[in-house]
Protein backbone atom coordinates (compact mmCIF):
# COMPACT_ATOMS: atom_id res chain seq x y z
CA UNK A 1 0.00 0.00 0.00
CA UNK A 2 1.34 3.45 -0.90
CA UNK A 3 2.50 5.69 1.90
CA UNK A 4 2.46 8.85 -0.23
CA UNK A 5 -0.03 11.56 0.85
CA UNK A 6 -3.44 11.49 -0.80
CA UNK A 7 -6.44 13.73 -1.44
CA UNK A 8 -10.11 12.89 -1.22
CA UNK A 9 -11.46 12.06 -4.67
CA UNK A 10 -14.21 14.70 -4.43
CA UNK A 11 -11.59 17.43 -4.95
CA UNK A 12 -10.24 15.69 -8.05
CA UNK A 13 -13.75 14.91 -9.30
CA UNK A 14 -14.73 18.59 -9.34
CA UNK A 15 -11.76 19.40 -11.56
CA UNK A 16 -12.38 16.39 -13.83
CA UNK A 17 -16.06 17.33 -14.20
CA UNK A 18 -15.09 20.84 -15.28
CA UNK A 19 -12.57 19.63 -17.84
CA UNK A 20 -14.89 17.00 -19.36
CA UNK A 21 -18.09 19.07 -19.32
CA UNK A 22 -16.38 22.04 -20.99
CA UNK A 23 -14.67 19.89 -23.61
CA UNK A 24 -11.18 20.79 -22.43
CA UNK A 25 -10.12 17.15 -21.99
CA UNK A 26 -11.09 13.63 -22.99
CA UNK A 27 -11.58 10.64 -20.73
CA UNK A 28 -8.37 9.10 -22.06
CA UNK A 29 -6.39 12.22 -21.17
CA UNK A 30 -7.77 12.16 -17.64
CA UNK A 31 -7.12 8.45 -17.23
CA UNK A 32 -3.53 8.86 -18.41
CA UNK A 33 -2.90 11.21 -15.46
CA UNK A 34 -4.86 9.30 -12.83
CA UNK A 35 -4.10 5.75 -13.91
CA UNK A 36 -7.75 4.68 -13.61
CA UNK A 37 -11.16 5.62 -15.14
CA UNK A 38 -12.58 8.89 -13.85
CA UNK A 39 -15.84 7.19 -12.82
CA UNK A 40 -13.97 5.63 -9.90
CA UNK A 41 -13.67 9.13 -8.42
CA UNK A 42 -17.40 8.96 -7.62
CA UNK A 43 -16.69 6.42 -4.89
CA UNK A 44 -16.82 8.50 -1.66
CA UNK A 45 -13.99 6.37 -0.19
CA UNK A 46 -11.69 6.84 -3.20
CA UNK A 47 -8.40 8.64 -2.63
CA UNK A 48 -5.89 10.00 -5.14
CA UNK A 49 -2.13 10.48 -4.63
CA UNK A 50 -1.40 14.18 -4.16
CA UNK A 51 1.27 14.05 -6.87
CA UNK A 52 -1.30 12.77 -9.41
CA UNK A 53 -3.89 15.32 -8.28
CA UNK A 54 -1.37 18.15 -8.71
CA UNK A 55 -0.33 16.81 -12.12
CA UNK A 56 -3.97 16.97 -13.19
CA UNK A 57 -4.09 20.60 -12.08
CA UNK A 58 -1.04 21.40 -14.22
CA UNK A 59 -2.71 19.71 -17.18
CA UNK A 60 -5.90 21.69 -16.55
CA UNK A 61 -4.09 25.03 -16.54
CA UNK A 62 -2.41 24.11 -19.83
CA UNK A 63 -5.61 22.92 -21.50
CA UNK A 64 -7.80 25.81 -20.37
CA UNK A 65 -5.11 28.50 -20.73
CA UNK A 66 -6.56 29.96 -17.53
CA UNK A 67 -3.96 30.33 -14.76
CA UNK A 68 -6.70 31.57 -12.38
CA UNK A 69 -8.78 28.42 -12.85
CA UNK A 70 -8.34 27.37 -9.21
CA UNK A 71 -9.83 30.62 -7.94
CA UNK A 72 -12.74 30.38 -10.39
CA UNK A 73 -13.62 26.80 -9.49
CA UNK A 74 -13.51 27.68 -5.82
CA UNK A 75 -16.26 30.24 -6.41
CA UNK A 76 -18.68 27.54 -7.55
CA UNK A 77 -21.08 26.66 -4.73
CA UNK A 78 -22.85 23.40 -5.56
CA UNK A 79 -24.06 21.49 -2.47
CA UNK A 80 -24.53 18.34 -4.57
CA UNK A 81 -20.82 18.28 -5.39
CA UNK A 82 -19.44 19.32 -2.00
CA UNK A 83 -17.54 16.73 0.00
CA UNK A 84 -18.54 15.35 3.38
CA UNK A 85 -16.30 17.79 5.22
CA UNK A 86 -18.12 20.84 3.85
CA UNK A 87 -21.50 19.46 4.87
CA UNK A 88 -20.22 18.77 8.38
CA UNK A 89 -18.61 22.20 8.68
CA UNK A 90 -21.69 24.15 7.60
CA UNK A 91 -24.01 22.10 9.81
CA UNK A 92 -21.95 22.92 12.92
CA UNK A 93 -23.38 24.97 15.78
CA UNK A 94 -21.16 28.07 15.58
CA UNK A 95 -18.40 29.51 13.43
CA UNK A 96 -15.89 28.43 16.09
CA UNK A 97 -17.23 24.88 16.03
CA UNK A 98 -17.18 24.91 12.21
CA UNK A 99 -13.54 26.06 12.20
CA UNK A 100 -12.56 23.32 14.64
CA UNK A 101 -14.24 20.74 12.41
CA UNK A 102 -12.49 22.19 9.34
CA UNK A 103 -9.11 21.87 11.06
CA UNK A 104 -9.85 18.38 12.37
CA UNK A 105 -11.10 16.97 9.10
CA UNK A 106 -8.83 18.67 6.60
CA UNK A 107 -6.44 15.75 6.36
CA UNK A 108 -9.32 13.85 4.76
CA UNK A 109 -9.24 16.43 1.99
CA UNK A 110 -5.47 16.71 1.49
CA UNK A 111 -2.88 14.91 3.63
CA UNK A 112 -0.06 17.08 2.25
CA UNK A 113 -1.48 20.24 3.84
CA UNK A 114 -1.45 20.83 7.60
CA UNK A 115 -3.81 23.37 9.15
CA UNK A 116 -3.30 25.41 12.30
CA UNK A 117 -5.12 28.31 13.92
CA UNK A 118 -3.53 31.05 16.00
CA UNK A 119 -5.30 33.73 18.00
CA UNK A 120 -3.73 37.16 17.50
CA UNK A 121 -5.54 39.47 19.87
CA UNK A 122 -8.91 40.28 18.33
CA UNK A 123 -8.43 38.14 15.24
CA UNK A 124 -7.89 34.52 14.24
CA UNK A 125 -5.24 33.42 11.77
CA UNK A 126 -5.71 30.10 9.93
CA UNK A 127 -2.48 28.71 8.45
CA UNK A 128 -2.16 26.22 5.59
CA UNK A 129 1.30 24.66 5.95
CA UNK A 130 2.77 22.35 3.29
CA UNK A 131 5.86 20.64 4.79
CA UNK A 132 6.94 19.10 1.47
CA UNK A 133 7.38 22.08 -0.85
CA UNK A 134 7.30 19.80 -3.90
CA UNK A 135 3.63 19.12 -3.11
CA UNK A 136 2.65 22.81 -2.95
CA UNK A 137 0.28 23.39 -5.87
CA UNK A 138 -0.74 26.99 -6.58
CA UNK A 139 -4.06 26.30 -8.38
CA UNK A 140 -5.10 23.75 -5.76
CA UNK A 141 -4.29 26.21 -2.97
CA UNK A 142 -6.19 28.88 -4.90
CA UNK A 143 -9.24 26.64 -5.07
CA UNK A 144 -8.98 25.72 -1.38
CA UNK A 145 -8.90 29.35 -0.26
CA UNK A 146 -11.51 30.55 -2.74
CA UNK A 147 -13.89 27.72 -1.82
CA UNK A 148 -13.44 28.26 1.93
CA UNK A 149 -14.26 31.97 1.75
CA UNK A 150 -16.95 31.75 -0.94
CA UNK A 151 -18.79 28.94 0.85
CA UNK A 152 -18.50 30.70 4.21
CA UNK A 153 -20.10 33.80 2.72
CA UNK A 154 -22.80 31.69 1.06
CA UNK A 155 -23.73 29.54 4.06
CA UNK A 156 -22.90 31.88 6.97
CA UNK A 157 -23.07 35.55 5.95
CA UNK A 158 -22.55 37.32 2.58
CA UNK A 159 -20.49 40.12 4.13
CA UNK A 160 -18.14 37.90 6.12
CA UNK A 161 -14.89 39.89 6.25
CA UNK A 162 -11.35 38.66 5.66
CA UNK A 163 -8.82 41.04 7.21
CA UNK A 164 -5.61 39.72 5.61
CA UNK A 165 -4.60 37.04 3.11
CA UNK A 166 -0.97 35.91 2.87
CA UNK A 167 0.10 33.58 0.06
CA UNK A 168 3.06 31.23 0.23
CA UNK A 169 3.65 31.68 -3.50
CA UNK A 170 4.73 34.68 -5.51
CA UNK A 171 2.21 36.80 -7.42
CA UNK A 172 1.11 34.50 -10.28
CA UNK A 173 -0.06 37.39 -12.45
CA UNK A 174 -3.79 37.53 -11.70
CA UNK A 175 -3.85 39.62 -8.56
CA UNK A 176 -7.12 41.28 -9.56
CA UNK A 177 -8.95 37.95 -9.14
CA UNK A 178 -7.65 37.58 -5.58
CA UNK A 179 -8.72 41.14 -4.79
CA UNK A 180 -12.20 40.57 -6.23
CA UNK A 181 -12.81 37.36 -4.28
CA UNK A 182 -11.16 38.04 -0.92
CA UNK A 183 -11.61 41.84 -0.71
CA UNK A 184 -8.73 42.31 1.72
CA UNK A 185 -5.04 43.27 1.84
CA UNK A 186 -2.85 40.67 0.07
CA UNK A 187 0.74 39.58 0.61
CA UNK A 188 2.45 37.28 -1.89
CA UNK A 189 5.66 35.33 -1.25
CA UNK A 190 4.87 35.23 2.49
CA UNK A 191 6.55 31.86 3.06
CA UNK A 192 3.29 30.26 4.16
CA UNK A 193 -0.37 30.70 3.36
CA UNK A 194 -2.78 32.13 5.91
CA UNK A 195 -5.86 34.30 6.30
CA UNK A 196 -7.18 36.34 9.21
CA UNK A 197 -10.71 37.14 10.29
CA UNK A 198 -12.26 38.82 13.38
CA UNK A 199 -12.23 36.61 16.47
CA UNK A 200 -15.73 37.71 17.46
CA UNK A 201 -17.06 35.66 14.52
CA UNK A 202 -16.33 32.49 16.50
CA UNK A 203 -19.43 32.80 18.69
CA UNK A 204 -21.82 33.43 15.80
CA UNK A 205 -24.36 30.63 15.20
CA UNK A 206 -24.57 29.07 11.75
CA UNK A 207 -27.93 29.99 10.20
CA UNK A 208 -28.55 26.72 8.32
CA UNK A 209 -27.18 24.22 10.83
CA UNK A 210 -28.81 20.82 11.12
CA UNK A 211 -27.66 18.84 14.19
CA UNK A 212 -29.01 15.56 12.79
CA UNK A 213 -27.09 15.90 9.52
CA UNK A 214 -23.95 16.90 11.42
CA UNK A 215 -24.19 13.89 13.72
CA UNK A 216 -24.90 11.37 10.96
CA UNK A 217 -22.07 12.56 8.71
CA UNK A 218 -19.60 12.85 11.58
CA UNK A 219 -20.09 9.17 12.42
CA UNK A 220 -19.18 8.21 8.85
CA UNK A 221 -16.26 10.63 8.61
CA UNK A 222 -14.76 9.45 11.90
CA UNK A 223 -14.63 5.97 10.41
CA UNK A 224 -12.76 7.33 7.40
CA UNK A 225 -10.30 9.14 9.66
CA UNK A 226 -9.46 5.89 11.43
CA UNK A 227 -8.73 4.25 8.08
CA UNK A 228 -6.16 6.87 7.15
CA UNK A 229 -2.62 6.12 8.17
CA UNK A 230 -1.40 8.20 11.15
CA UNK A 231 -0.13 11.53 9.90
CA UNK A 232 2.98 13.27 11.11
CA UNK A 233 2.82 11.69 14.55
CA UNK A 234 6.51 12.28 15.26
CA UNK A 235 6.23 15.92 14.14
CA UNK A 236 3.19 16.42 16.36
CA UNK A 237 5.02 14.92 19.33
CA UNK A 238 8.03 17.16 18.68
CA UNK A 239 5.77 20.24 18.64
CA UNK A 240 4.22 19.24 21.96
CA UNK A 241 7.60 18.58 23.60
CA UNK A 242 9.15 21.83 22.35
CA UNK A 243 6.11 23.74 23.63
CA UNK A 244 6.26 22.00 26.99
CA UNK A 245 10.00 22.59 27.39
CA UNK A 246 9.87 26.34 26.81
CA UNK A 247 11.34 28.66 28.10
CA UNK A 248 14.35 26.41 27.57
CA UNK A 249 15.81 26.98 24.11
CA UNK A 250 14.61 24.24 21.73
CA UNK A 251 17.28 21.56 21.59
CA UNK A 252 17.12 18.56 19.28
CA UNK A 253 19.11 16.27 21.60
CA UNK A 254 16.82 17.02 24.54
CA UNK A 255 13.71 16.41 22.42
CA UNK A 256 15.17 13.21 20.95
CA UNK A 257 15.90 11.98 24.47
CA UNK A 258 12.31 12.69 25.50
CA UNK A 259 11.20 10.55 22.54
CA UNK A 260 13.66 7.77 23.46
CA UNK A 261 15.53 7.96 20.18
CA UNK A 262 18.84 9.28 18.89
CA UNK A 263 19.23 12.62 17.17
CA UNK A 264 19.90 10.85 13.86
CA UNK A 265 16.76 8.72 14.19
CA UNK A 266 14.66 11.80 14.95
CA UNK A 267 16.09 13.64 11.95
CA UNK A 268 15.38 10.62 9.73
CA UNK A 269 11.79 10.22 10.94
CA UNK A 270 11.04 13.93 10.52
CA UNK A 271 12.55 13.96 7.04
CA UNK A 272 10.33 11.02 6.09
CA UNK A 273 7.34 13.10 7.19
CA UNK A 274 8.51 16.12 5.19
CA UNK A 275 9.41 18.09 8.32
CA UNK A 276 12.51 19.35 10.09
CA UNK A 277 13.23 20.01 13.74
CA UNK A 278 14.19 23.63 13.06
CA UNK A 279 10.94 24.31 11.21
CA UNK A 280 8.81 22.75 13.95
CA UNK A 281 10.60 24.62 16.73
CA UNK A 282 10.31 27.89 14.81
CA UNK A 283 6.57 27.38 14.28
CA UNK A 284 5.97 26.72 17.98
CA UNK A 285 7.90 29.81 19.02
CA UNK A 286 6.32 31.97 16.30
CA UNK A 287 2.76 30.98 17.20
CA UNK A 288 3.35 31.65 20.88
CA UNK A 289 5.22 34.89 20.13
CA UNK A 290 2.31 36.28 18.11
CA UNK A 291 -0.10 35.52 20.94
CA UNK A 292 2.10 36.95 23.69
CA UNK A 293 2.95 40.13 21.77
CA UNK A 294 -0.66 40.87 20.85
CA UNK A 295 -2.15 40.03 24.27
CA UNK A 296 0.24 42.48 25.97
CA UNK A 297 0.34 40.65 29.30
CA UNK A 298 4.15 40.45 29.24
CA UNK A 299 6.82 42.98 28.40
CA UNK A 300 8.88 42.21 25.31
CA UNK A 301 11.91 41.15 27.35
CA UNK A 302 9.69 38.73 29.26
CA UNK A 303 8.30 37.35 25.99
CA UNK A 304 11.84 36.78 24.74
CA UNK A 305 12.66 34.84 27.92
CA UNK A 306 9.45 32.78 27.80
CA UNK A 307 10.31 31.70 24.24
CA UNK A 308 13.84 30.63 25.09
CA UNK A 309 15.77 33.52 23.54
CA UNK A 310 18.97 34.55 25.29
CA UNK A 311 18.33 38.25 24.76
CA UNK A 312 15.71 40.65 23.43
CA UNK A 313 17.71 41.50 20.30
CA UNK A 314 17.75 37.85 19.19
CA UNK A 315 13.99 37.62 19.71
CA UNK A 316 13.43 40.88 17.81
CA UNK A 317 15.43 39.61 14.83
CA UNK A 318 13.47 36.35 14.77
CA UNK A 319 10.13 38.16 15.11
CA UNK A 320 10.96 40.49 12.22
CA UNK A 321 11.88 37.48 10.11
CA UNK A 322 8.49 35.92 10.90
CA UNK A 323 6.31 38.99 10.41
CA UNK A 324 8.30 41.73 8.69
CA UNK A 325 7.83 43.94 11.79
CA UNK A 326 9.52 44.44 15.15
CA UNK A 327 7.61 43.14 18.20
CA UNK A 328 6.88 46.72 19.24
CA UNK A 329 5.48 47.67 15.84
CA UNK A 330 3.35 44.52 15.74
CA UNK A 331 1.97 45.12 19.24
CA UNK A 332 1.10 48.74 18.43
CA UNK A 333 -0.65 47.80 15.19
CA UNK A 334 -2.81 45.15 16.87
CA UNK A 335 -3.99 47.28 19.82
TrEMBL record:
GO terms for cellular component: cytosol. GO terms for molecular function: DNA-binding transcription factor activity; transcription cis-regulatory region binding. Gene3D superfamilies: Homeodomain-like. SMART domains: HTH_ARAC (SM00342). It comes from the Bacteria. The keyword Metal-binding does not apply. Residues 236-333 form the HTH araC/xylS-type domain. It holds the Pfam family HTH_18. The keyword Zinc-finger does not apply. PANTHER family: HTH-TYPE TRANSCRIPTIONAL REGULATOR GADX, HTH-TYPE TRANSCRIPTIONAL REGULATOR VQSM. This is AraC family transcriptional regulator.
Amino acid sequence: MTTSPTVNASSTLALVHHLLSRGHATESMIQSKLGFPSRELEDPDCRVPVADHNALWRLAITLTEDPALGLRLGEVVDPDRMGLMSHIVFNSDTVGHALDEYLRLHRLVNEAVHLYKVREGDRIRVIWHVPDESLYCVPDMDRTLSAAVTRARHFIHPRLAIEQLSLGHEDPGYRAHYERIFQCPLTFGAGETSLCFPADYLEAPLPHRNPYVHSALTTHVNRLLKQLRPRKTVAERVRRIVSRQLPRTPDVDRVASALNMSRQTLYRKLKKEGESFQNLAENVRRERALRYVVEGEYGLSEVAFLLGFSELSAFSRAFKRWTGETPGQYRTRHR
